[in-house]
Specification:
alpha+beta; 2 domains; four-stranded antiparallel beta sheet; two-stranded antiparallel sheet; 4 helices; 36% helix
Length: 151
Protein backbone atom coordinates (compact mmCIF):
# COMPACT_ATOMS: atom_id res chain seq x y z
CA UNK A 1 0.00 0.00 0.00
CA UNK A 2 2.85 2.41 0.73
CA UNK A 3 4.28 1.74 -2.74
CA UNK A 4 0.93 2.72 -4.25
CA UNK A 5 0.94 6.05 -2.42
CA UNK A 6 4.51 6.76 -3.54
CA UNK A 7 3.58 5.98 -7.17
CA UNK A 8 0.52 8.25 -7.03
CA UNK A 9 2.51 11.04 -5.39
CA UNK A 10 5.28 10.71 -8.00
CA UNK A 11 2.78 10.75 -10.86
CA UNK A 12 0.98 13.75 -9.36
CA UNK A 13 4.29 15.62 -8.90
CA UNK A 14 5.29 14.85 -12.49
CA UNK A 15 1.93 16.06 -13.86
CA UNK A 16 2.14 19.29 -11.85
CA UNK A 17 5.74 19.88 -12.96
CA UNK A 18 4.87 19.23 -16.59
CA UNK A 19 1.82 21.50 -16.42
CA UNK A 20 3.67 24.44 -14.89
CA UNK A 21 6.72 23.95 -17.11
CA UNK A 22 4.59 23.90 -20.24
CA UNK A 23 2.70 27.02 -19.17
CA UNK A 24 5.97 28.83 -18.47
CA UNK A 25 7.37 27.72 -21.81
CA UNK A 26 4.23 28.87 -23.60
CA UNK A 27 4.56 32.35 -22.11
CA UNK A 28 8.19 32.55 -23.20
CA UNK A 29 7.37 31.21 -26.66
CA UNK A 30 4.62 33.81 -27.06
CA UNK A 31 7.05 36.61 -26.23
CA UNK A 32 9.47 35.25 -28.83
CA UNK A 33 6.91 35.48 -31.66
CA UNK A 34 7.85 37.96 -34.35
CA UNK A 35 5.78 41.10 -34.72
CA UNK A 36 5.73 43.24 -37.83
CA UNK A 37 4.54 46.82 -38.08
CA UNK A 38 4.39 49.48 -40.76
CA UNK A 39 6.23 52.77 -40.29
CA UNK A 40 4.65 55.58 -42.30
CA UNK A 41 6.99 58.49 -42.98
CA UNK A 42 6.20 62.16 -43.18
CA UNK A 43 6.96 63.52 -46.64
CA UNK A 44 10.16 65.40 -47.45
CA UNK A 45 8.09 68.60 -47.18
CA UNK A 46 6.56 67.58 -43.83
CA UNK A 47 3.17 66.48 -45.16
CA UNK A 48 1.40 63.60 -43.46
CA UNK A 49 0.36 61.06 -46.11
CA UNK A 50 -2.20 59.36 -43.90
CA UNK A 51 -5.77 60.05 -44.93
CA UNK A 52 -4.58 61.65 -48.17
CA UNK A 53 -5.64 60.62 -51.61
CA UNK A 54 -2.34 59.62 -53.18
CA UNK A 55 -2.36 59.21 -56.95
CA UNK A 56 0.27 58.74 -59.64
CA UNK A 57 0.20 62.48 -60.27
CA UNK A 58 0.90 63.52 -56.66
CA UNK A 59 2.83 60.57 -55.21
CA UNK A 60 6.15 62.42 -55.33
CA UNK A 61 4.77 65.06 -52.95
CA UNK A 62 4.37 62.44 -50.21
CA UNK A 63 7.67 60.57 -50.45
CA UNK A 64 10.17 60.87 -47.59
CA UNK A 65 13.69 62.06 -48.29
CA UNK A 66 16.62 59.64 -48.16
CA UNK A 67 18.04 61.23 -45.00
CA UNK A 68 14.78 60.60 -43.11
CA UNK A 69 14.68 56.96 -44.16
CA UNK A 70 18.34 56.50 -43.18
CA UNK A 71 17.86 58.13 -39.78
CA UNK A 72 14.85 55.96 -38.95
CA UNK A 73 16.53 52.82 -40.31
CA UNK A 74 19.67 53.45 -38.23
CA UNK A 75 17.64 53.95 -35.08
CA UNK A 76 15.60 50.76 -35.41
CA UNK A 77 18.55 48.62 -36.48
CA UNK A 78 20.56 49.83 -33.47
CA UNK A 79 17.66 48.67 -31.30
CA UNK A 80 17.82 45.20 -32.86
CA UNK A 81 14.76 45.63 -35.06
CA UNK A 82 14.85 44.52 -38.70
CA UNK A 83 14.00 47.38 -41.06
CA UNK A 84 12.89 47.06 -44.67
CA UNK A 85 12.28 49.95 -47.03
CA UNK A 86 12.03 49.51 -50.77
CA UNK A 87 10.24 52.68 -51.86
CA UNK A 88 7.08 54.61 -51.17
CA UNK A 89 5.73 56.22 -48.02
CA UNK A 90 6.33 53.38 -45.57
CA UNK A 91 8.77 50.77 -44.29
CA UNK A 92 8.34 47.54 -42.37
CA UNK A 93 9.89 46.77 -39.00
CA UNK A 94 10.07 43.29 -37.50
CA UNK A 95 11.24 42.02 -34.11
CA UNK A 96 10.32 39.63 -31.33
CA UNK A 97 7.23 40.61 -29.36
CA UNK A 98 9.22 41.21 -26.16
CA UNK A 99 11.51 43.72 -27.91
CA UNK A 100 8.53 45.57 -29.41
CA UNK A 101 6.87 45.79 -26.01
CA UNK A 102 10.04 47.04 -24.32
CA UNK A 103 10.96 49.58 -27.00
CA UNK A 104 7.50 51.08 -27.43
CA UNK A 105 6.33 50.69 -23.81
CA UNK A 106 3.23 48.71 -24.75
CA UNK A 107 1.71 45.32 -24.07
CA UNK A 108 0.78 43.36 -27.18
CA UNK A 109 -1.90 40.73 -27.24
CA UNK A 110 -2.27 38.13 -29.94
CA UNK A 111 -5.63 36.71 -30.84
CA UNK A 112 -6.38 34.37 -33.73
CA UNK A 113 -4.94 36.38 -36.60
CA UNK A 114 -3.90 39.69 -35.06
CA UNK A 115 -1.57 41.44 -32.69
CA UNK A 116 -3.18 44.31 -30.82
CA UNK A 117 -1.93 46.97 -28.45
CA UNK A 118 -3.71 46.32 -25.15
CA UNK A 119 -5.79 49.20 -23.82
CA UNK A 120 -6.38 50.88 -27.18
CA UNK A 121 -9.66 51.31 -29.00
CA UNK A 122 -8.50 49.99 -32.37
CA UNK A 123 -5.36 48.32 -31.01
CA UNK A 124 -3.43 48.98 -34.21
CA UNK A 125 -1.49 52.18 -33.51
CA UNK A 126 1.82 51.91 -31.70
CA UNK A 127 2.45 55.05 -29.64
CA UNK A 128 5.47 57.10 -30.69
CA UNK A 129 6.09 58.52 -27.18
CA UNK A 130 9.17 56.34 -26.49
CA UNK A 131 10.91 57.28 -29.74
CA UNK A 132 13.60 59.98 -29.76
CA UNK A 133 12.40 63.35 -31.08
CA UNK A 134 14.70 63.04 -34.11
CA UNK A 135 12.84 59.89 -35.15
CA UNK A 136 9.36 61.20 -34.24
CA UNK A 137 9.92 64.18 -36.57
CA UNK A 138 10.29 61.77 -39.52
CA UNK A 139 7.37 59.45 -38.77
CA UNK A 140 3.64 59.94 -39.18
CA UNK A 141 2.52 56.65 -37.69
CA UNK A 142 3.56 53.14 -36.71
CA UNK A 143 0.81 50.56 -36.96
CA UNK A 144 0.23 46.86 -36.70
CA UNK A 145 -1.37 45.15 -39.69
CA UNK A 146 -5.12 44.70 -39.48
CA UNK A 147 -4.59 40.98 -39.90
CA UNK A 148 -1.59 38.69 -40.02
CA UNK A 149 -0.77 37.01 -43.30
CA UNK A 150 -1.02 33.27 -42.95
CA UNK A 151 1.14 31.26 -45.32
Amino acid sequence: MNGSIVKKTTIFTFICFAFFSCNSMKSTEEKNQEVTAEVTFLSATGQDPLNQQITSSNVLEFLPDDASVSLVRDYFEKQGIAFRYDQGISATITAEQALFEKLFGVALQRDKNHYRVKGQDNGLDIPLKNLPDTVKKQVSNISLPDRMELF
